[in-house]
Write a structure and sequence with these properties.
The complex is a heterodimer of chains A (465) and B (481). By secondary structure, chain A is mainly α. Chain A has 3 domains: 97 residues, Fumarase/aspartase (N-terminal domain) (Fumarase C, Chain B, domain 1, Orthogonal Bundle); 225 residues, Fumarase/aspartase (Central domain) (Fumarase C, Chain A, domain 2); 67 residues. Helices cover 60% and strands 5% of the residues of chain A. In chain A, the strands form 3 sheets. Chain A has a two-stranded antiparallel sheet with strand order 1-2. In chain A, strands 3-4 form a two-stranded parallel ribbon. The longest helix of chain A has 37 residues. Chain B has 481 residues and is mainly alpha-helical. Chain B has 3 domains: 85 residues, Orthogonal Bundle (Fumarase C, Chain B, domain 1), CATH 1.10.275.10; 233 residues, Up-down Bundle (Fumarase C, Chain A, domain 2), CATH 1.20.200; 58 residues. Helices cover 61% and strands 4% of the residues of chain B. Chain B has 18 helices and 4 strands. Classes of the chains: A mainly alpha (465), B mainly alpha (481). At the A-B interface, strand 2, helix 10, helix 13 and helix 14 of A face strand 2, helix 10, helix 12, helix 13 and helix 14 of B.
Chain lengths: 465, 481
């Protein structure tokens, strides 16, 4: 009975991807908890802290399918502890009373936190992979359109000519920074938790340090040297990076959404054949996916807020903070990864209407190159005077509908300063591109170089941890 | 005083505060007014206590007379705040100094600091609500007039940023109007709940007032024009959270209107434009620009106000009987939200007052889009003969083809085998005339206008009073000194 859209089975991938939901699947998560207990028992067995035989039996039975899940489920109905019913299940599954040595000296939060790290690490692995794919798609897009002229807009108003390539390399530079952020944080977050009830490792005995190191190494993690039960800045940082990342995706999605407006129609989100936009307006072609990305980004940002707020712990452990973090993290990861998947779809099939771009560039009858004229005139009558003058004339052109060029040529003060021939520049806004093409080429080259230094993957790629 | 008087918050900027608030709103929160308000509350307390024989009448008379900023040594208060870290005692100490004989001994008799500050905050909020109600009413009126004026202007309705169906501009505005009116109702309900006093002592038991507590609360509240609450709300901050979230709703409505204007002002659309006058500059380097900057600023303010609403909810989580971690947050959130909301309202009034409606562009856009935006009507027309779902499929295929090949939809439709020979082209043409397909646009618009007009006519206005700086020469009590 999937009640949350993340888990919908009929409409499965609206707000999640199969790969990501597998990471956070309830049974996968419990198995991860059992893996922790098995690793702990193994190390404690080797060090003689618990009988070797018990360690082996725990290792053998720490498999979800060997547990009586009915009674574990029953246990959760009564117990308010998030781990005990599962551990009781494992204890019962072990023969000859070996189960008594399960979870020997660890605290519940050691297990849950360590598993959470494995989950977020698997998420980062996926995000890194997808982000690099997005980068390569955008690199191609920018390269193909480095000279495709279009209108640049500020305040929602047409500003100056630019190229689509330049717009895209700005997206690219953000994407690249996110890749660097993920690379940077990846080793830092790969630390588990095994410090006992209040971080003193009291119940782990004299070999506590060895146990912690050994257990976490078995799980592919480092030991943090000191407990981070109440010290959640790593998760907070990760959540902030996810927020940044999704904000970039949402900004790109929103740009496409805006440029797909019927009146503008310069970029069109790909619509697979057979997709229907409206149930009652047969002509519609909607940027649906872009809108979903924006919606997801809003949720990611607010989840990040919750996670950051959960950093303010009281004393050694604080359930109010933990529970809000533990609830927020799976959604955070799934929404972030889903938004990224969506953007791969959108960018890889993005329809570029360069004809519409050119038409829009000519929409305002040469007003758009007023800056060119400004600098052309500045040498003669000064920049501030030119600005004032051209501002007056451009408003006159807008209000009267007469072409800007005519208005300028007929002006008694500046009309005579400009030859008709050089004024022809105003008719070709697509030539007023500044250094756009050069900037695009340089940025592409720069990013290509950085890509060569990237590791192929961050951690395992199969997500089965 | 240092020769450099830093005005670091943007609302204090001599140059930019106009974009964020109004001088009228700043006056409410000026710290002179704030202190005077606290003194007013102390004076009301003393007078009410004298009425009930809790403190001597001569002392109350003297406290009331001296409870004015011009008698207070503000430098001593400043020094006292540094030393004591207490937010109220230094002011009370200065008031005591100002009082004659032993009258000062009867100041703040049995009240707790938060009683005074919360009550004063209610007075602040009352002043804010006066402005908000006045301006929101004016905006409602403006939008009503706009909707009336635009009742019959056919325009394009858009969904997913795409042309959807025809509608009237009046209907778009009627939707704004309906939302604005709901905000007016929220404001009225809010006043009832929020404008209450606070006078319950240290932990809300009224211990120090004993059996006279209830009578005192009534008299005290009455003097200040606030309602007496049933019980202490020191640690019960839903009222403030409601104020902050209602302000966020109001700003959400205004920002949505501003943003719609901004979107429709794009060069490619060009249907609405915020007021422009010669001299208003869009860009420092692109002389042709005309930017919807006021509309953008409205969105900025709404975002700031919305962030404070979140803090309002956080402030509801209090520990035990009083919790300053919650209350002190309000000193910032209530102030900022109020300042911003007043700025936003005044900006919206200016935008709507001279909103430019480019009717020719609207008509042009509608004419050019006619075939596309009337596909729903076409679908129902064809559907009568061939079934609605079939019609949807045919028009969908043809519309996509029209888009891709840039050919007129009707041309393509008329050659399809399901259509050719079965329908007349002029019937199809008549069907797609957008003016015929605005549905109930006009009726809906009129209905909304009538409703709001009737409601407005039965809603009273709130009397305003002029605020005079307690330290200025205009203040009569100040001159009496």
């Amino acid at each position: 009975m999937p009640a949350h859209p993340i888990d919908y089975q009929i409409n499965q991938t609206v707000f999640s991807t199969v790969e990501l939901t597998q990471i956070f699947d309830e049974k996968a998560r419990y198995q991860r908890w059992l893996d922790f207990e098995a690793a702990l028992a193994k190390v404690q067995g080797e060090l003689g802290v618990i009988p070797q035989e018990a360690a082996e039996e725990i290792g053998r039975k720490a498999k979800l399918e060997l547990l009586d899940l009915e009674s574990v489920h029953e246990g959760y109905q009564h117990s308010r502890n998030s781990l005990m019913p599962l551990l009781s299940g494992l204890r019962r599954a072990c023969a000859k009373g070996h189960g008594e040595y399960v979870h020997y000296g660890a605290t519940t939060q050691d297990v849950i936190d360590t598993a959470e790290i494995l989950e977020v690490r698997a998420t980062v692995t996926i995000l890194y992979r997808d982000l690099r794919v997005l980068e390569s798609i955008c690199l191609k897009l920018a390269g193909n359109h480095r000279t495709t002229p279009m209108v640049a807009r500020t305040h929602g108003q047409q500003a100056l000519p630019t190229t689509l390539g330049l717009k895209v390399v700005i997206w690219l530079s953000e994407i690249r920074r996110h890749i660097e952020r993920l690379k940077h944080i990846f080793p830092r977050i790969a630390v588990g938790q095994l410090s006992g009830a209040v971080g003193t490792m009291a119940a782990l005995g004299p070999q506590a340090m060895k146990i912690a190191n050994g257990t976490l190494n078995l799980l592919g993690l480092e030991y943090s040297r000191v407990a981070w039960h109440n010290s959640r800045d790593n998760i907070g940082e990760l959540a902030s990076i996810f927020s940044l990342l999704v904000a970039t995706l949402a900004k790109i999605a929103n740009e496409i959404f805006q440029l797909q407006k019927t009146e503008i129609a310069e970029l069109i989100e790909p619509a697979p054949a057979g997709s229907v936009a409206s149930s009652t307006m047969p002509h519609k072609k909607n940027p649906v996916i872009c809108q979903r990305v924006v919606a997801l980004s809003r949720h990611v940002r607010s989840l990040t807020g919750t996670i950051i707020e959960s950093m303010a712990h009281e004393h050694e452990r604080d359930g109010r903070c933990l529970w809000s973090e533990w609830l927020a993290v799976p959604q955070l990861c799934i929404y972030t990864g889903t938004a990224l998947q969506y953007m791969l779809d959108v960018t890889s099939g993005l329809e570029v209407r360069s004809d519409r771009m050119l038409a829009n560039l000519h929409l305002q009858k040469n007003l758009i190159t007023s800056e060119w004229l400004l600098f052309r005139l500045s040498g003669t009558i000064g920049k501030m005077r030119s600005l004032e003058k051209l501002h007056e004339l451009s408003n006159k052109a807008t209000d009267t509908g007469i072409s800007f060029k005519e208005v300028v040529m007929n002006d008694p003060e500046i009309g005579s300063l400009l030859g008709r021939e050089e004024m022809a520049c105003l008719d070709q806004p697509e030539k007023y591109l500044g250094h756009a093409v050069q900037i695009v080429e340089q940025a592409i080259e720069d990013i290509e170089k950085k890509r060569e230094l990237d590791p192929k993957t961050l951690g395992e790629t199969d997500g089965q941890l | 005083m240092d020769s450099c008087e830093p005005n670091s918050h943007i609302v204090e900027s001599q140059f930019y505060s106009g974009g964020y608030t109004t001088s009228e709103a700043r006056k409410i929160f000026c710290d002179r007014y704030r202190y005077q308000r606290w003194l007013d509350v102390e004076a009301a307390l003393a007078l009410a206590q004298a009425d009930l024989g809790i403190i001597p009448a001569w002392a109350a008379k003297n406290i009331n007379e001296k409870a004015h900023l011009c008698y207070i040594n503000l430098d001593a208060v400043k020094e006292g705040l540094k030393v004591s870290s207490h937010s109220l005692l230094p002011l009370l100490g200065a008031l005591q100094q100002a009082c004659d004989d032993d009258a000062g001994q009867f100041i703040h008799f049995g009240a707790t600091t938060q009683d005074i500050q919360d009550t004063a905050q209610s007075l602040e909020i009352r002043d804010v609500l006066t402005i908000v109600t006045r301006d929101l009413r004016a905006i409602t009126q403006q939008v009503m007039e706009l909707a009336e004026r635009c009742t019959d202007i056919v325009t394009i309705g858009r969904t997913h940023c795409q042309y959807a169906l025809p509608m009237t501009l009046g209907l778009k505005m009627a939707v704004w109007l309906d939302e604005l009116w709901r905000n007016m109702e929220r404001l009225a309900a809010l006043r009832e709940r929020v404008l209450v006093s606070q006078l319950f002592g240290g932990v809300g038991t009224m211990d120090a007032f004993a059996e006279k507590g209830f009578a005192l609360l009534d008299k005290f509240s009455q003097r200040l024009g606030l309602a007496p609450p049933l019980t202490a709300w020191h640690a019960s901050r839903d009222r403030i959270a409601e104020f902050l979230s209602t302000m966020a709703l109001i700003s959400g409505t205004l920002a949505k209107i501003a943003d719609e204007i901004r979107c429709l002002a794009r060069d490619e659309t060009g249907e609405l434009e915020e007021p422009f006058q010669m001299g208003k500059i869009g860009s420092s380097t692109m002389p042709h620009k005309r930017n919807p900057e006021m509309c953008e600023q409205a969105v900025v303010l709404a975002r700031l106000i919305k962030a404070n609403a979140g803090l309002g909810f956080e402030g509801m989580i209090n520990e035990h009987e009083r919790d300053y971690r919650a209350v002190r947050m309000e000193w910032v959130t209530v102030t900022d939200t109020s300042l911003f909301v007043c700025g936003l309202l005044s900006m919206m009034k200016a935008i709507l007052k001279d909103l430019i409606i480019h009717e020719h562009r609207i008509r042009q856009n509608v004419d050019q889009a006619a075939t596309l935006i009337s596909t729903e009507a076409l679908m129902f027309f064809l559907g009568e003969a061939i079934g609605k779902q079939t019609a949807h499929q045919i028009i969908y295929e043809t519309a996509m083809k029209a888009k891709e090949t840039n050919q007129p939809l009707l041309d393509l439709l008329m050659v399809r085998k399901e259509i050719a020979g079965k329908f007349k082209r002029e019937d199809l043409e008549k069907t797609i005339d957008p003016a015929n397909h605005v549905g109930m646009s006009q009726e809906l618009t009129r209905r909304t206008i009538d409703h709001v007009k009737e409601k407005l006519s039965t809603t009273g206005t709130i009397t305003e009073r002029e605020r005079v700086c307690p330290l200025s020469e205009k203040d009569s009590r100040c001159n009496a000194q």
